[in-house]
Amino acid sequence: MNLSTFTSVLENDKERLKYRDELVLATLNNPQYIEVLLTNMEAIEDENSNFSSRTLELACKEKLGLIIPYLDKFCELLPKVKQGAVIRACAKICELLIVNYFNNHPTVLKENHLEKIIEAGFDWMITNQKTAVKAYTMQILYLLGTKYDWIHPELVLNIEKDIPTATIGYVNRGRKVIKAIETKTKLKL
Fold this sequence. Notes:
By secondary structure, this protein is mainly alpha-helical.
């Protein structure tokens, strides 16, 4: 899929869902298309933002390394996104990056990237987000708390504050995270 077709399909509300797999494949085959996806995601009120973020998320699930050259732009975008679907996709990409950081490649993410992810993560924890966003964020902040001591106490406070009114999924994940922090054991999800 050439760039013109890629952009056209992304902008066509009626066609893009049926071409989602092709868009992801095109992104995997043409990593420079990530620039188009990120640019669309910057249009925070535009519906293309949602679909572009989902396309980027699916491409990153397949091949996380594609986003590495765009980490600065991606991390700068995190505090700006407002739509629930875009935040969910960004949270999932952040989770993939942080898990990868702690398991394989600690040199890929720089200190400024980690700071932006932490800032966005706590914003997502204290605002009214869907359970999936908060679940991904708990994992992110739990792992980052093994590097930065101040994160775990803040994370526990945020989780405990929301447990009385949260969904069952949130409560279950939250209790696992709190238990791992309190017992200083590895988080098992």
